Amino acid sequence: MKKYFLLVVLLFTLTNFWSQRNQLIAFIDMEYILENVPEYLQAQNTLDAKVAKWRKKLDDQARHIEVLKTDLANEKAILTKDLIEEKEEEITLKQQELRRLESLYFGPKGDMFLVRKQLVKPIQDQVYNAIQSIAARKKYDFVFEKSSDLIMLYSNKKYDISDLVLSTIDRTRLANKKQEERKKKTEASKLPNKDLTVKQKEILAKKEEANSKKEDALAKKKADKEAKKKAIEEKRKALLKQREEKRKLLREKKEALRKKKEAEKKKKEDN
After folding, report:
1. 199 burial class (0-12, 13-18, 19+ CB within 10 angstroms)?
2. What does the domain layout of the chain look like in residue ranges?
3. Model-wide pTM > 0.70
């Protein structure tokens, strides 16, 4: 009981001390900051373009599946059982491919997640590093994010450090740029002459020749791939043509059978 009483007294003392201490608080508007960072806008535009391309591919695939379903429903009456099963299997495979692509693009670890991480995360890290630097320098106890789930019923503009964060990011960017320029100058100064030596020219020529061979190999590989793709497409068209001919033959047989039945019926009626 005595220990419990001492603990309560200690907590009360610490709470009282903390309440009497002047706390330094600031807040930022993350949305405002990111909208004023050129790299973020460029990264977001790149991501949006990729997402639009992926969604268009998925929409096209989904529409193609709906067309296949409609065609099957319209032609089911004149198709054989084997052809019906074949078309149903084709539709099932297309649906599986569509689900695979959806997971590939927009799954928990899909392309969108990876591209966002690759493009946006470094910029967000710049912002957080700038906030930490400012908070340490000005000794802020808390830095809140205005557009988060935290409800701010009132905020005094003088505690908004968003512009300060932006200026810190600009200074860091400028410092990095100057450092990169100094590094390039240092590397350039290490060369014996500005003009290339005979040996350097030979090395450069070999590199260009290697790059040329590599490009030729890639071009050949691309051409082979296109030829293979074309062959597959032609085979698919031939198969579709064959199926269409079978369907036409079935329709003709069905029509001939119908006419024959009508003729027999008419003959019976005449007799």
Report:
1. exposed
2. 23-190, 195-271
3. no
